[in-house]
Amino acid sequence: MFKATVYVTLKESVLDPQGNAVRESLHSLGFDEVGEVRIGKYMNLQIDADKEETARERIEEMCKKLLANTVIEEYRLEMKGV
Hints:
Layout: E1 2-10, H1 17-28, E2 40-47, H2 52-67, E3 73-81
Antiparallel strand pairs: 1-2, 1-3
């Protein structure tokens, strides 16, 4: 059994209008020191697998097929045994 955390973010070359809106809101609240803001998401998954390599391969497949839009997003994952 493994737990994985998947972080999905927009690629650097993709504009982030939500991040820009957050940055502007922070500035309007007086947090002028904030520069670029990029918005992303993360998911915690529990995977029933015998080996970490198998679990990692399955999660990579999930990311490519559903969890991340690999045209505009990139992802990274962290694994740990339970």
